[in-house]
């Protein structure tokens, strides 16, 4: 008798089975899946991308490690990526910005395509705001890792960071969203966004996947809001169709 795993490995539909390495955090993962469905050109169930989602909420705190105060998340990330591959995933996506610090190393540990949210976001910035400074709303770990600042600097663009005080407000807002207090988190993010807009940001990266849960990417103060979850969803759809 055929098992569910056998059915998955037969790659139903026209595209590869997507493995979603999620749980960082759980609400952001759910938001990514909703946006993936919305961005997929489909008229029926069978037109959507077959997906396996693993909520790896046991992965140690990424920011804590990057700031030197927590265990290394990489072993848990590798185990999770391999688990999805072994369950039949033929392509991976990880809806967590901070975890993309390990993206290149993770991609080297699995023999299937691993879509980069960072590269998808940088592509979107080039399309909607090809010149001028870019603001970054993200975890302190993402900011310190340089995963957005360095590639922007490589093409001669400035990545605007926040003051320590406003960065602390953003981290507080991320914690509120993870706890389900979305409106309270949005107020924290909006305060930081105003600072970046006042300093000349032409685009603002919503660089933690909790942030677009609380802020509507279609609204804003003038600078384009770059929703990293939407960027990842679009990149997955494009890769699947190709």
What does this 3D model show about the protein?
Belongs to the aspartate/glutamate racemases family. With 242 residues, this protein is α/β, with parallel strands linked by helices. The chain folds into two domains: 4-116 and 232-241, 3-Layer(aba) Sandwich (Rossmann fold); 118-229, Rossmann fold (3-Layer(aba) Sandwich), CATH 3.40.50. Helix content is 48%, strand content 11%. The protein has helices spanning 4-9, 26-39, 62-66, 74-86, 103-107, 117-128, 140-145, 149-154, 164-178, 182-198, 211-214, 228-241; strands at residues 18-22, 51-55, 91-93, 134-137, 159-160, 203-206, 224-227. The strands form two sheets. It has a four-stranded parallel beta sheet, with helices on both faces. β6, α11 and β7 form a beta-alpha-beta unit. α2 (26-39) packs across α12, α6 packs across α12 (228-241) and α9 packs antiparallel against α10 (182-198).
């Amino acid at each position: 008798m055929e098992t569910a795993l056998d059915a998955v490995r037969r790659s139903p539909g026209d595209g590869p089975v997507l493995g979603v390495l999620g749980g960082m955090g759980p609400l952001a993962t759910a938001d990514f899946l909703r946006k993936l469905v919305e961005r997929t050109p489909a008229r029926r169930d069978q037109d959507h991308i077959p997906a396996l989602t693993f909520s790896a909420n046991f992965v140690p705190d990424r920011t804590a490690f990057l700031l030197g105060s927590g265990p290394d998340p990489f072993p848990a990330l590798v185990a999770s990526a391999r688990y999805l591959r072994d369950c039949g995933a033929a392509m991976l996506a990880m809806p967590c910005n901070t975890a993309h610090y390990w993206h290149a190393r993770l991609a080297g540990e699995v023999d299937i395509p691993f879509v980069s949210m960072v590269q998808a976001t940088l592509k979107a910035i080039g399309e909607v705001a090809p010149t001028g400074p870019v603001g970054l709303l993200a975890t302190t770990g993402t900011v310190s890792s340089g995963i957005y600042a360095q590639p922007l600097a490589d093409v001669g663009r400035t990545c605007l960071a926040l003051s320590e005080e406003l960065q602390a407000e953003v981290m507080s807002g991320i914690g509120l969203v993870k706890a389900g207090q979305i409106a309270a988190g949005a107020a924290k993010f909006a305060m930081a966004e105003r600072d970046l807009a006042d300093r000349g940001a032409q685009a603002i990266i919503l660089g933690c996947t909790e942030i677009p849960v609380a802020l509507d990417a279609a609204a804003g103060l003038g600078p384009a809001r770059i929703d990293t979850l939407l960027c990842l969803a679009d990149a997955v759809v494009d890769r699947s169709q190709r």
